[in-house]
Design brief:
Rossmann fold; single chain; globular; alpha/beta
Length: 230
């Protein structure tokens, strides 16, 4: 068994909240491909670009695509998603995706002590940069076609930064808080929107993951089994 960063519940929740079927998907910061590959399995007509900066994780994403029978519909691109020139050189054009999904690193450099494992550290902590989360979101939104859908998962405390990055680019924004238990504060927020829409923002019903016994709630269990969407 390989050591290092593994797929967790965040990927499951993001895939479940991606919305209606799309034909052209881009997964920004795809890691081993869990989110995009789940969507390709769900939507047989879809094609996906999986953008990942780590070549070893990208290799695992290619392997996972083959193991899941979607290699002919999944293109894995090893590049820095924030580098517009690198995206163009790889054939990833702006304004063409029907759906962009992303699970960005959760912390800026210096906010937390990074893991000694380089891959785990890269998955959770941005490299030193100015406003890295906002830059990540702006780059992701640039890939969307007008009317395309954006979906991401992040920490609730970063909502002001996220909304600032959206600016006038995204409308029909929906935010769904995710709580570990009914009485606990949210630990994640699922956010989606439509490029160019002028529809107002809404707050979607909260998702509670665990009941008092620590077991999954019925909805959370159904989502993790692939039987329900958000």
């Amino acid at each position: 068994m390989r050591a290092g960063h593994r797929v967790g519940a965040d990927a499951v929740l993001l895939a479940a909240s991606a919305g209606p079927p799309a034909r052209r998907i881009v997964d920004v910061g795809a890691g081993v491909g869990a989110v995009a590959l789940a969507l390709l399995q769900r939507w047989p007509e879809a094609r996906g670009d999986l953008v990942e900066i780590d070549p070893d994780l990208a290799a695992l994403a290619r392997e996972n695509a083959a193991l899941n029978g979607v290699a002919d519909r999944a293109r894995v691109l090893v590049l820095d998603a924030l580098d517009a020139a690198a995206r163009r050189a790889a054939g990833l054009a702006n304004g063409e995706a029907d759906l962009v999904v992303t699970n960005p690193p959760f912390f800026a450099a210096g906010e937390v002590r990074a893991s000694p494992d380089p891959r785990r550290a890269r998955a959770h902590v941005f490299a030193a940069d100015e406003a890295p989360l906002q830059a990540w979101i702006v780059a992701s939104l640039a890939l969307l076609a007008p009317g395309g859908r954006f979906a991401m998962i992040h920490r609730p405390e970063t909502l002001p930064l996220i909304f600032a990055a959206f600016g006038e680019r995204l409308g029909a924004v929906a935010a769904r808080p995710v709580h570990p238990r009914a009485e606990a504060d949210a630990i994640r927020v699922l956010i989606s929107g439509v490029k160019g829409s002028r529809a107002p923002m809404r707050l979607s019903p909260a998702l509670v993951l665990h009941d008092a016994s620590g077991a999954f709630t019925p909805l959370a269990a159904a989502v993790h089994r692939g039987e329900a969407l958000l």
